[in-house]
Amino acid sequence: FNWISALNLNTSSLLTNAGLLTGEICSNLGCALESLASQVFHDSPMVSLIVDPELEQIIDSNPAASKLYGYPHSQMSHMNWSKVSDIALPASLPSTPSIARHTTSSGDRILVELFCHSIIQGKRTLYIITVRDISAQLKAELELDIQHNLNNQIINNLNCGIYVKDLSGRYIIANDTFLMKILGKTADEVIGHTDSEIFGSAPPCLAV
Fold it and tell me: What are phi and psi of 166, to 5 degrees?
Protein backbone atom coordinates (compact mmCIF):
# COMPACT_ATOMS: atom_id res chain seq x y z
CA PHE A 1 0.00 0.00 0.00
CA ASN A 2 1.44 3.36 -1.03
CA TRP A 3 -0.13 6.38 0.66
CA ILE A 4 1.82 8.71 -1.66
CA SER A 5 0.01 7.18 -4.63
CA ALA A 6 -3.23 7.97 -2.81
CA LEU A 7 -2.14 11.60 -2.53
CA ASN A 8 -1.23 11.58 -6.22
CA LEU A 9 -4.60 10.00 -7.13
CA ASN A 10 -6.53 12.59 -5.16
CA THR A 11 -4.72 15.47 -6.86
CA SER A 12 -4.90 13.96 -10.36
CA SER A 13 -8.62 13.18 -10.08
CA LEU A 14 -9.36 16.68 -8.86
CA LEU A 15 -7.54 18.34 -11.75
CA THR A 16 -9.03 16.00 -14.37
CA ASN A 17 -12.58 16.37 -13.08
CA ALA A 18 -12.16 20.13 -13.07
CA GLY A 19 -11.25 19.97 -16.77
CA LEU A 20 -7.91 21.62 -16.14
CA LEU A 21 -5.74 18.80 -17.51
CA THR A 22 -6.10 15.95 -19.97
CA GLY A 23 -5.61 12.39 -18.77
CA GLU A 24 -2.14 12.04 -20.34
CA ILE A 25 -0.82 15.35 -19.00
CA CYS A 26 -2.37 14.66 -15.62
CA SER A 27 -0.69 11.23 -15.50
CA ASN A 28 2.72 12.78 -16.14
CA LEU A 29 2.06 15.48 -13.59
CA GLY A 30 0.86 12.86 -11.14
CA CYS A 31 4.15 10.99 -11.38
CA ALA A 32 6.05 14.20 -10.73
CA LEU A 33 3.79 15.01 -7.77
CA GLU A 34 4.24 11.52 -6.37
CA SER A 35 8.02 11.80 -6.61
CA LEU A 36 7.99 15.26 -5.04
CA ALA A 37 5.67 14.21 -2.21
CA SER A 38 7.86 11.22 -1.44
CA GLN A 39 11.00 13.35 -1.40
CA VAL A 40 9.46 16.04 0.81
CA PHE A 41 8.08 13.46 3.26
CA HIS A 42 11.26 11.45 3.63
CA ASP A 43 13.69 14.39 3.53
CA SER A 44 11.77 16.55 5.99
CA PRO A 45 13.62 17.28 9.26
CA MET A 46 10.25 17.20 11.00
CA VAL A 47 9.05 13.88 12.41
CA SER A 48 6.22 12.65 10.14
CA LEU A 49 4.02 9.57 10.38
CA ILE A 50 1.28 8.16 8.16
CA VAL A 51 -1.33 6.44 10.32
CA ASP A 52 -4.43 4.39 9.55
CA PRO A 53 -6.95 5.53 12.21
CA GLU A 54 -9.22 2.50 11.74
CA LEU A 55 -6.41 0.00 12.29
CA GLU A 56 -4.63 2.40 14.67
CA GLN A 57 -1.43 1.46 12.88
CA ILE A 58 1.53 3.44 11.56
CA ILE A 59 1.94 2.54 7.88
CA ASP A 60 4.85 4.82 6.96
CA SER A 61 7.40 7.04 8.68
CA ASN A 62 10.32 9.22 7.69
CA PRO A 63 13.97 9.05 8.88
CA ALA A 64 13.33 11.86 11.38
CA ALA A 65 10.77 9.60 13.08
CA SER A 66 13.27 6.75 13.35
CA LYS A 67 15.76 9.17 14.89
CA LEU A 68 13.27 10.41 17.51
CA TYR A 69 11.70 7.07 18.45
CA GLY A 70 14.76 4.87 17.94
CA TYR A 71 13.05 2.27 15.71
CA PRO A 72 14.22 1.34 12.19
CA HIS A 73 11.88 2.27 9.35
CA SER A 74 10.98 -1.38 8.69
CA GLN A 75 9.70 -1.77 12.25
CA MET A 76 8.22 1.70 12.65
CA SER A 77 6.11 1.38 9.51
CA HIS A 78 4.19 -1.67 10.79
CA MET A 79 3.73 -0.58 14.38
CA ASN A 80 0.58 -0.16 16.41
CA TRP A 81 -0.06 3.46 17.38
CA SER A 82 -0.46 2.44 21.04
CA LYS A 83 3.19 1.31 21.16
CA VAL A 84 4.37 4.93 20.91
CA SER A 85 1.39 6.94 22.15
CA ASP A 86 -0.52 6.96 25.44
CA ILE A 87 -3.68 8.34 23.80
CA ALA A 88 -5.84 6.80 21.09
CA LEU A 89 -6.17 8.39 17.69
CA PRO A 90 -9.13 10.78 17.47
CA ALA A 91 -12.12 9.73 15.38
CA SER A 92 -12.03 13.16 13.74
CA LEU A 93 -9.10 15.50 13.30
CA PRO A 94 -8.70 18.11 16.05
CA SER A 95 -8.79 21.73 14.92
CA THR A 96 -5.76 22.59 17.05
CA PRO A 97 -2.48 20.79 17.84
CA SER A 98 -2.70 18.30 20.70
CA ILE A 99 -0.21 17.37 23.41
CA ALA A 100 0.59 13.74 24.19
CA ARG A 101 3.19 11.63 25.92
CA HIS A 102 5.06 9.22 23.64
CA THR A 103 7.45 6.37 24.36
CA THR A 104 10.73 5.74 22.53
CA SER A 105 12.37 2.37 21.90
CA SER A 106 14.58 2.89 24.99
CA GLY A 107 11.51 3.43 27.17
CA ASP A 108 12.02 7.18 27.55
CA ARG A 109 8.80 9.16 27.91
CA ILE A 110 8.70 12.38 25.90
CA LEU A 111 6.12 15.14 25.58
CA VAL A 112 5.15 15.86 22.00
CA GLU A 113 2.92 18.24 20.10
CA LEU A 114 0.89 16.62 17.30
CA PHE A 115 -0.30 18.31 14.09
CA CYS A 116 -2.77 16.18 12.08
CA HIS A 117 -4.01 16.30 8.49
CA SER A 118 -5.89 13.74 6.43
CA ILE A 119 -5.78 12.22 2.95
CA ILE A 120 -8.40 10.00 1.31
CA GLN A 121 -7.71 6.63 -0.38
CA GLY A 122 -11.00 5.49 -1.86
CA LYS A 123 -13.25 5.15 1.19
CA ARG A 124 -10.25 5.05 3.48
CA THR A 125 -8.99 8.03 5.48
CA LEU A 126 -5.35 8.25 6.53
CA TYR A 127 -3.76 10.71 8.92
CA ILE A 128 -0.53 12.55 8.24
CA ILE A 129 0.81 13.34 11.71
CA THR A 130 3.69 15.72 12.30
CA VAL A 131 5.33 15.28 15.69
CA ARG A 132 7.30 17.94 17.58
CA ASP A 133 9.27 16.94 20.67
CA ILE A 134 8.63 19.67 23.27
CA SER A 135 10.26 17.94 26.25
CA ALA A 136 13.35 20.18 26.25
CA GLN A 137 11.24 23.31 25.78
CA LEU A 138 8.97 22.47 28.72
CA LYS A 139 11.98 21.58 30.88
CA ALA A 140 13.58 24.95 30.12
CA GLU A 141 10.31 26.77 30.86
CA LEU A 142 9.99 24.90 34.17
CA GLU A 143 13.54 25.82 35.16
CA LEU A 144 12.84 29.47 34.33
CA ASP A 145 9.66 29.39 36.42
CA ILE A 146 11.56 27.90 39.36
CA GLN A 147 14.28 30.56 39.08
CA HIS A 148 11.67 33.31 38.74
CA ASN A 149 9.84 32.12 41.85
CA LEU A 150 13.11 31.89 43.79
CA ASN A 151 14.07 35.43 42.79
CA ASN A 152 10.64 36.68 43.87
CA GLN A 153 10.95 35.00 47.25
CA ILE A 154 14.37 36.57 47.81
CA ILE A 155 13.43 40.16 46.95
CA ASN A 156 10.06 39.99 48.73
CA ASN A 157 11.77 39.00 51.97
CA LEU A 158 13.97 42.12 51.93
CA ASN A 159 12.93 45.07 54.11
CA CYS A 160 14.06 47.66 51.57
CA GLY A 161 12.05 48.67 48.53
CA ILE A 162 13.32 47.23 45.24
CA TYR A 163 12.08 47.96 41.76
CA VAL A 164 13.31 47.68 38.17
CA LYS A 165 12.11 49.65 35.14
CA ASP A 166 12.66 48.96 31.47
CA LEU A 167 14.05 51.57 29.06
CA SER A 168 10.59 53.05 28.50
CA GLY A 169 10.15 53.64 32.23
CA ARG A 170 7.69 50.80 32.85
CA TYR A 171 7.99 48.77 36.03
CA ILE A 172 8.97 45.17 35.36
CA ILE A 173 9.97 44.16 38.92
CA ALA A 174 8.80 45.50 42.29
CA ASN A 175 8.97 43.81 45.67
CA ASP A 176 6.25 43.80 48.33
CA THR A 177 7.98 46.45 50.46
CA PHE A 178 8.15 48.89 47.56
CA LEU A 179 4.58 48.20 46.44
CA MET A 180 2.76 48.23 49.77
CA LYS A 181 4.87 50.39 52.09
CA ILE A 182 6.20 52.98 49.63
CA LEU A 183 3.61 53.19 46.85
CA GLY A 184 0.56 51.75 48.55
CA LYS A 185 -0.31 49.93 45.31
CA THR A 186 -0.83 46.36 44.18
CA ALA A 187 1.38 44.58 41.66
CA ASP A 188 -1.40 44.74 39.05
CA GLU A 189 -1.55 48.53 39.45
CA VAL A 190 2.22 48.96 39.02
CA ILE A 191 3.84 46.25 36.88
CA GLY A 192 3.79 47.17 33.20
CA HIS A 193 2.95 50.83 33.89
CA THR A 194 4.94 54.07 34.02
CA ASP A 195 4.87 56.57 36.90
CA SER A 196 2.76 58.98 34.88
CA GLU A 197 0.21 56.24 34.19
CA ILE A 198 0.09 55.35 37.89
CA PHE A 199 0.26 58.79 39.52
CA GLY A 200 -0.48 61.23 36.70
CA SER A 201 3.10 62.51 36.94
CA ALA A 202 6.35 60.96 38.10
CA PRO A 203 7.24 61.61 41.77
CA PRO A 204 10.76 63.12 41.96
CA CYS A 205 12.14 60.10 43.84
CA LEU A 206 10.91 57.71 41.12
CA ALA A 207 11.66 59.77 38.03
CA VAL A 208 14.65 57.66 37.00
Answer: -85, -175
